Predict the structure.
Amino acid sequence: MRRLVQGNEAVFRGAVAAGASYYAGYPISPSTEILNIASGWATEHPEFGFLQAEDEIASANSVIGASLAGAKAFTATSGPGFSLMQEAIGYAQKVGVPSVFVDVQRVGPATGMPTMPGQGDIAQVRYGSSGDYTPIAFYPNSVAEAFLMATNAFNAAEESRSPVILLSDTFVAHLNEVVDLDELAAGVTVAPRELTPLARNGDGEPRFFAGVLMYEHGPNAGEPATADADEYLRQFYAAKHRHLEVANRYALYQHGWNTEASTLVVCYGIVSRVAAPLAPDYALFRPIRIHPMLTDELRAVADRYEEIVVIEANDGQYADMAELALRRDVKRIPLLGGRISLEAVNAGLDRVLGGGPSEPPVPEPPAERAPRAPLGIG
Amino acid sequence: MPETAFAELDFKSKLKMDLFPTIWCPGCGIGTIMIELAMVLDELGMDQGNTVIVTGIGCTGRMGSYMKYEAVYTLHGRTLPVAEAIKTVRPELNVIVVAGDGDTASIGGNHLIHAIRRNAPITVLCNNNEIYGLTGGQTGPTTPSGTKTLSSPGGNPNTPINLQGIVRSSPHSLYARTTVYHQPQMRTAIREAIEHPGFSFVDITSQCIENNGRRIGFANANEMLTFYRKTYKRAPKGADRLGPHELGILYPEGHANGTNGNDTDGATSGPTATTPAETVPQTGAGASPRAERASVSDDEKARKRAESQKRLALMQRLDPAVKLQVAKGEVSLADALRAAGIDPEELG
């Protein structure tokens, strides 16, 4: 049935279509609807596990426990909660726990602007936990795509045995678009669980799922490997190669708008929707699988354009990655403080293409007490 | 009387003996807890197909790697969310958490109070050694006031956390206190905790001789155990809270055993016994194994204990090689005694 569906709801329904049977979360704007919907779903479907945890640390670790027990499990949060989850994400990377973490971004750092959209977690997704790891992340820009990327996130998590991040933002989360959820669900393929659940190992050697480095195979299996660089290399590269191989199956991006133009706009998530009126005069590169970096794909596209402008609701997090990947300068338009609007985009283009700075002009503080700022786009 | 195999040795089937010796320092109390846990698991028929161990970080956390159970060695302090989720997804599993006092009550303190609030149907064994041992001996949440540690050279200025109070803040959870010296009582406490269908917590005082005991004046682990023997006593019958250095099991409201494991006749005594049993949420399906066990009176328990002690005394009179045969079940105790010229009737 075609009906209006909210972005957050689409994420939840996509997760269920991909086989999710456990959700743990803690209320935080603008992801809270996912928690609400999950609780209702669990009431109607007793086989679906649900926990409103005491905090995001508990949510994330609960997802890990549920996944090791055999459930496809996920949580949803926003920037501050996502920060609290980073240690657990590192654990899931180390141990190889298939799981999905949804991060609906708002304006940070800290509590920041809780109801305003931002994209400030692009680098946190990549580097937030300690140590080296290779996360896979998707970032949709519509309700239907939110559904599909939720299913991709679950499948990639199973295939790579790792925590996969599904990014969203206040606007994508609260976007209402007409979609047919049943039709979307009908096209979904579901990746099977390969990791044997806890206590289903038969008479096999009992496993020890450890965040600390242990020998997993061979004559020393079960012993700590906390001072053995060779064992670290074996485990690290096995995981990295597995993650990259799976990520390559989902090398999703959009190259479109006016591909005859001379300037390529790189943007993602809600910014790519807001910037859509640029279509006649600019080309678009929109990464959907935003991590690992789509280096080859971006290079092949970018070679055709004279100028590259990265427009994003943060201070150049993806632009930094793009410059590294392309080894060439890109222009930056940061849309900060939740001001994601076509006016801000156009003003930025005028500024950076005219040789000006990427920083927008910063107004003086008001001399008199201003009336309370209206909510919404400033 | 039925011939009793010496179950105490069967626990080895629950341990990865090939990984021994363990990493724990000589004199550490954790091994004792592990053996008592293995005995109880063996006794209750819990194997790797129906039981999962979740451990925290630190010395205690390594217990999972030595037991023949699938185990999750979680992040520091995060045992309870992991354990509760495993139980939610797989209610048929017995989920046992083993963690130190720092893990449970400090970094994991928030999870502890909320797991209690939700009456998570899991068992927590807290290795309470009153110190952060693995990092060299810093003040922990249960370190007594005045104790000198690496991080409180002038003596711990704070009052230790009240684990009993936290666990008993919910009418549904079971709290037991024991020590590494009081092994039979520890075994009972662990068994009662595992059989309790709701949240249960066993607070096990244990010795860290290397990074705490020596610094506070004990020469060796034996001195610490002797201290436990002399200091810790069984709580008075009917007590609904354990005083300092009192050992016992505090059952939740409406529990078949009444308020306290030391009650003479279970269900009727104790100030909380008037609370209707309906207020206790039934997390398990139907009657728990607890209900049957409750019919065994304290006198009966005392008689069994005496019998067991008598058997042990007779065992001591056997040749070590024969003793081993008896323990393995190859020879019955009665036959072995007869062969040694001892009247098996002495068994009673």
